[in-house]
Every structure is written in structure tokens, then in C-alpha cells.
TrEMBL record:
This protein's name: Uncharacterized protein
Organism: Haematococcus lacustris
Pfam families membership: WD40
Matches recorded under PANTHER family: WD REPEAT-CONTAINING PROTEIN POP1
Transmembrane segments: none
First and last residues of every WD repeat: 229-270
The entry's keywords: Repeat, WD repeat
Highest taxon, organism lineage: Eukaryota
Amino acid sequence: LLDKFTSINDQPVCVAYVPPTNMYWASGRFGRLVAYDPRAPSNVTEYVRDSNSLDRFRVTTLFAPLHTDLLLGATAKRQLVVWQHNKQAAYRQVLNEVEDARPPAQEEIFSGGADGKVLRWQLDAEENCDIYVCVEEIPLHNKNILAIAYSPELGCLITGGEDSTIQVKYLNQAVPTFNDMPLPTSFVDHELRVTGLALLKHNVLASISADRCLRTWDLTTMKPLGCVQAAHDTPLQCIEYCQESNEIATCGMGNKVKIWDAQRPAALRLKLVLNHADNGAHDSDDEGGRGPKSNMTWLTRSDMPGLAQATNPLVDSTIKAAMRDTPEVRWVASRGVWVTAADDDMIRLWSPAGVKLSQWSQNGGSVQCLYVDNVNNLLVVAMQDKDCCVYDLDDPIPRATYKGHTDVVKGIGYLAAAKCYVTASWDK
């Protein structure tokens, strides 16, 4: 006896094994399709149901042709249904409200949601089939969680929320003390929502906010170190740290990415500006005129009778350059370059000196999230069309496209043990 499944709620009728999926697919007398992982063995239907449309058909007969990745099913309505294994489809799916997801070193997953809670996910040791289960709910904010960071050295989880606070949660130990008094576990100096966090050297935390401030904090003493007032002319929305050069990159809602020297965290110094206006100067600190796209059309054309259409290409290109937002910036350690994504659907690579090295376009709409996979030297891009594309930085053609989310993806991570990506979306 090799396998025995005892958790079947329906009378089994047929079963088929598809080797590429490493799972059994079975159907009962009511035509309900179920999936079993033989490693446990365990019923994993709830984790693969949506990505495989298992509830769409009532299958009475199953057949898996030898040496193929196909599964054939026949229904009572005399339909023939064919499934094919897709390596780029969702591997496992768990539902909850998530805003961001970050796996720490021990391959746990922490996700933050709109309810202000952080969920702690761990591999189900009993199931033994790559299923993560929620083992703890940690209430930290009273509004949306917008940013998550994890410090392996301090063993703490750090979150930033819409309530304008930064919370520090020690996971496996008590709160450290100073002079026999517990240290504070929150920072409250930001005036508006906290939109990004970055861990620097020597247990220093950098944070950005919609209040346009860039702040640094000492996590050892839980005291503020420094603040750059009006770091950008618009609310800040992304922050990234380069450990090799000890620099911080920030971007707001304009077309500039600013690089800050973090040698002295208490006194950050503006070092460089990456300008996404192709004809702009790289040493300018001016954000440029950003405005809603719908309000800019009057400068380029007129819909009023009797007025000529504007056809000045210089005016048109200048307006488009000013309208660009740069929502994401990341450091690629393996290549020693900055990578940015702008609202003009372009992804750009920059040298540490601020020289634009290359750029390519993508067709999925504005970028929602960038993730640098330093293990496989790849770039994962989540776009407005809800898809995630994987790029080699030397090739503008995506290596893979992941589909399945019904809303935009706001968090991406990599699980080294499972050799797969984990994504978090507003579709819960």
C-alpha cells in the first residue's frame, strides 16, 4: 500500500495521476474535483481550486495520457475538458487581507493587511506539502499596514501604517530594557501615513511618509536620529537601501529619484538625482510640474469648435515628461545598478553615478511593485494589469508571466526552500 486518502467527503469514482504536478486528481459521484498531494498524503484542493477552476465543471471521468502534462475530464453534459500543467501558474493560494509580504531568514512569511494586523505564516509540518498556515495574528495598527521590514539581528518585525506610526514587534523574546525599563516599541513622529521602511547598518531604520519627511531611527535605543524635512515636493512612496555604498534612494510622486548619502544617519546628505525627464538635468533638485493627466490635455489640443489643434511636438514631449511618476526604485546588488519604474511604462537601469544605462517598455500598465531576486539574479515586476513578469536585466522580453490575481499585487518575496515566489495582493 503506497497511499491512502481518508478525508474524501464524496464517494470516489475515478482518479488520475499527472506526474508534472506531483498530485492525484480525483472525482466523486457528484462530479466534484479534488486534488491530493501524495507526500503527506493530504487534500490540498482549497489551495489550488481557484487557479485550476476546479468548481467550474462537474467531472465524472478522468484520464491522464502517459508522458504528457495533460488531464482529460468528461462531464455529465457530454463535455470534454482538458487541463494542462502550467509551470507559471499559482502553486498554492491562501486567502487573507494582505498589503505586503516579506519572508525572513527562517522562511516564515509575514503579511500585513487593511485590518492593521500582521499574520504569521509557517509551513504546515504535518501536511508536508508546501502549505503555509497562519499560526499567529499580531494586532499592531488601527488602520492599514503599508510597509513591513524584518531585522534578523534584533529578531523583530517593523511595520508602518496609515495611522502614521511605526511599530516594533519582538517575535521570540521580551522587549529589551534600558536602565531596567522596557524600551518603547513605537515611533510616532510622522504626521501622515508611513509608506516605506528600510533597514540600514548598525540597527538603524529609515522611514518615509506622506508628510514628505525622510527620518532615521536607532532601533537599539528606540530614539530618533535625524529628519530631512520636505525630502521631496510630493508625498514619498518608495525607499530602498544600498548596503554596498551606504546610500538611500527615495521617490515621491514626481519624476525624480533622490539618492542620499547615509554615512551619517543623523545627517543625511543629498548626493544624486535620477531624472526621468529624458531632457532634464541630473543635478536638479526641482521635482518639476506634476499634474493629473486629465488636466494636461488642454495644453496639447482643443476640442472647442473653431480652435486649431496644437501640434507642437516639443510642448507635447515636455508635458509627458513632467507627468511621469516614479513609483518604485530598487538596488540590484549583483549588477551594481539602480532600477526604476515610471508611469510611462518604462523600466530603467542607472549606474551608481546616475547615468542611464538602458531602458525597456512593458505593456502591463503602471508598475505596482518591484522585487529584485538576488538568488537567481532576476527582476520581478507587478503591474496594473494584475500580472507579474520576470525579467533578466539583459533581455527586455519577460522570462515568465504569472497570472491569477484578481487585483493588483503590492508585495513580492522569494522562498528559497521552495524555490518559488510569494505574492500578496489586494484580492485578499
